[in-house]
């Protein structure tokens, strides 16, 4: 098949959020730490009524309904998540409830886990299926979803929650570029979840930032090398209309775009550098591995990459800024945000670079091309037309109520039997919620 890629995307975020300015006051930190220092405005969160199964049920059902896709048209469903409710039974099998009525049980795929990277692993697997001899002409669905919650302390404001469902097939309007993707993987304890009883990770904040930035360097270099070798193309930031990152918090993404500029400076010739960035000539000899926390360097790069950030990346941070880190869904929420920031005619022909990072660590860089001609692009964009309204129409919750909700989740996580106490009043119609957990830990869901 040709032009394998994305036909439709659905995003779901919880209806409740806490305001980061109010959270700064509540947490007793200096004003601006979360909003300016981290670049976050709102943080979405779930009560005990929602879990990873319900988030994924909601987003897949909404995708199918909105685009009027028959359940028999799906041949593969794969879920990327690090929100683990069960060490054996996959979220994918829970999603099979949606397919029951259609009688379609012939569906490949299960769950994939590595921190925020599982969605990308699922995407690559599903693309491979579409390009393989096993492909039977049907679509694949990739679901990336997580509930990101941290213990009280420095990391708490970098939580979030949400899920994205992606419909993949041939002759798509958003095409994954072939032969051009690069990964970096290594063994490190930057962020991990060794306590299976708790939703909270162990996190070494500073190390995780260093790992993220170094994986970004490595992926960009490997991506550029492949483009040069395979297509004789020299990659710089100018090669892309959009650059979309996994967003733990928005400020890190702005620094990451600046970091790619640094990578460009190193490969540009002195002549080009003098013409384009005369103020940055001295940075050409920078040793990447010694520069992660170099303040002066960072300040210069941020100032000089401002225009690039505004034109290629800023728009992709809408969901990240308004919801927070959705872990596996974050980079795809970034893609959605980028797509809804432009008119269809502006998007045509765009090339979008994606950087996906999962602690531990596994990271990849890859790229999409927006078809210049496909008549299916309008359907994809039409499906996203209510995203900003949905983000704007959520319910703000007091930080003290948010903290109480976190306590309830802590105390009742994995409890059985259990009947959730969270209200379903605020939920949008069509949202799945947890009705009960029986004494055998079996979960029942309802749809509002
Ligand atoms: N006004 C403006 N800026 C402020 C203010 C203020 N009042 N106060 C602090 N800041 C700035 C700081 O200068 C700092 O800026 P910098 O990053 O440019 O140095 C920023 O706000 C954050 O402040 P710190 O004191 O450095 O933050 P802290 O140690 O409290 O924690 C961290 C930040 C490490 C990101 C923490 O939230 C965390 O651990 N998060 C989870 C881990 C994470 O997301 N890692 C990223 C990759 S891995 C992943 O995706 C999970």
Automatic annotation (TrEMBL):
It comes from Orchesella dallaii. This is Hydroxymethylglutaryl-CoA synthase. Pathway: Metabolic intermediate biosynthesis; (R)-mevalonate biosynthesis; (R)-mevalonate from acetyl-CoA: step 2/3. Belongs to the thiolase-like superfamily. HMG-CoA synthase family. InterPro entries: HMG_CoA_synt_AS, HMG_CoA_synt_C_dom, HMG_CoA_synth_N, HMG_CoA_synthase_euk, Thiolase-like. Residues 175-448 form the Hydroxymethylglutaryl-coenzyme A synthase C-terminal domain. Catalyzes the condensation of acetyl-CoA with acetoacetyl-CoA to form HMG-CoA. It comes from the Eukaryota. It catalyses: acetoacetyl-CoA + acetyl-CoA + H2O = (3S)-3-hydroxy-3-methylglutaryl-CoA + CoA + H(+). The keyword Cell division does not apply. Gene3D superfamilies: 3.40.47.10. Keywords: Lipid biosynthesis, Lipid metabolism, Steroid biosynthesis, Steroid metabolism, Sterol biosynthesis, Sterol metabolism, Transferase. Coiled coil: none annotated. Its EC number is 2.3.3.10. Residues 1-173 form the Hydroxymethylglutaryl-coenzyme A synthase N-terminal domain. The keyword RNA-binding does not apply.
């Amino acid at each position: 098949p040709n032009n394998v890629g994305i036909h439709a995307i659905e995003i779901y975020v919880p209806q409740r959020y806490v305001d980061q300015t109010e959270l700064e006051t509540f947490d007793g930190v200096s004003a601006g730490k979360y909003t300016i220092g981290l670049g976050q405005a709102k943080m979405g969160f779930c009560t005990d009524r929602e879990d990873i199964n319900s988030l994924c049920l909601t987003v897949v059902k909404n995708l199918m309904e909105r685009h009027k896709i028959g359940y028999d048209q799906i041949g593969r469903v794969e879920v990327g998540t690090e929100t683990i409710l069960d060490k054996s039974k996959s979220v994918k099998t829970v999603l099979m409830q949606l397919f029951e009525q259609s009688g379609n049980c012939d569906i490949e795929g299960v769950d994939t886990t590595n921190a925020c990277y599982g969605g990308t692993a699922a995407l690559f697997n599903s693309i491979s299926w579409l390009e393989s001899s096993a492909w039977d002409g049907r679509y694949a669905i990739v679901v990336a979803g997580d509930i990101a919650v941290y213990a009280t302390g420095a990391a708490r404001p970098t939580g979030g929650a949400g899920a994205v469902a992606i419909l993949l097939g041939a002759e798509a309007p958003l095409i994954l570029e072939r032969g051009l993707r690069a990964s970096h993987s290594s063994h490190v304890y930057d962020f991990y979840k060794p306590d299976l009883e708790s939703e909270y990770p162990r996190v070494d904040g500073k190390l995780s930032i260093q790992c993220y930035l170094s994986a970004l360097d490595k992926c960009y270099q490997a991506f550029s090398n492949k483009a040069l070798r395979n297509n004789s193309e020299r990659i710089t930031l100018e090669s892309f209309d959009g650059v979309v990152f996994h967003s733990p918090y928005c400020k890190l993404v702005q620094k990451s775009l600046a970091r790619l500029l640094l990578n460009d400076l190193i490969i540009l010739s002195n002549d080009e550098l003098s013409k384009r960035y005369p103020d940055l000539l001295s940075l050409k000899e920078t040793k990447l591995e010694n520069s992660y926390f170099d303040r002066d360097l960072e300040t210069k790069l941020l100032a000089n990459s401002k225009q690039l950030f505004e034109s290629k990346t800023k728009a992709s941070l809408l969901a990240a800024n308004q919801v927070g880190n959705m872990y596996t869904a974050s980079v795809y929420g970034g893609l959605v945000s980028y797509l809804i920031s432009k008119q269809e005619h502006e998007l045509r022909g765009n090339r979008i670079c994606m950087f996906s990072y999962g602690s531990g660590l596994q990271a990849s860089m890859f790229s999409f091309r927006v078809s210049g001609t496909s008549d299916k692009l309008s359907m994809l964009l039409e499906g996203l037309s209510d995203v900003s309204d949905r983000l704007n129409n959520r319910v703000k919750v007091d930080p003290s109520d948010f903290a109480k909700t976190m306590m309830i989740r802590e105390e009742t996580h994995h409890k059985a039997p259990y009947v959730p106490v969270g209200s379903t009043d605020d939920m949008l119609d069509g949202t799945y919620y947890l009705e009960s957990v029986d004494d055998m830990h079996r979960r029942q869901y309802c749809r509002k």
